[in-house]
Design brief:
seven-stranded antiparallel β-sheet, 28% strand, 156 residues, 7 strands, alpha+beta, single chain, 6 helices
């Protein structure tokens, strides 16, 4: 009987430790107008958000955005067929907005096309909005789904 209790206690402890250390960090997701994107960029600059995922509502099309004060990095992963198909367009859009595209690798070796936007918050937001619109061919007043992962220390 004692052995069974020890096994049960070890199982419960394993579940608790797994949930505490290995569960995915929850995300906050909201749908906003592209014109309201500046507040989200300000969260990146302040360190309140680790990164943002900007998605076209109703599709799987998205851009990753990370940043700090005065600097944003926008990237398009090159993993799925639709992402690879958009590589030339995304690179052209970056260049048209004065941003040289460059390639980077993720921690798993996956390929990304990146661009770095610098300047004041309002200027970076306007450029980011144009990049999103032109890459995915959406209208300026369109909505965007913004996903913000909570910072790990906020969650635990």
């Amino acid at each position: 009987m004692d052995r069974l209790l020890w096994i049960l206690a070890a199982l419960v402890l394993s579940i608790v430790l797994y949930r505490y250390f290995f569960m995915p960090v929850p995300n906050s997701q909201q749908r906003i107008s592209l014109s309201a994107l500046e507040a989200e960029v300000a969260l990146l600059e302040s360190g309140e958000a680790n990164y943002l995922i900007l998605s076209v509502p109703g599709t799987d099309h998205f851009l990753n955005v990370s940043g700090e004060l005065g600097c944003l990095e926008v990237d398009l992963p090159q993993i799925l067929p639709w992402q690879i198909d958009l590589e030339d367009r995304f690179s052209s859009v970056l260049l048209a907005n004065g941003i040289p595209p460059y390639e980077s690798k993720g921690s798993d070796g996956s390929r990304f096309i990146d661009g770095t936007i610098t300047g004041p918050t309002a200027q970076m937001t306007a450029v980011l909005s144009r990049i999103f619109q032109q890459t995915f061919d959406v209208a300026p007043g369109s909505d965007v789904v913004v996903e913000k992962p909570f910072k790990l220390e906020t969650y635990q």
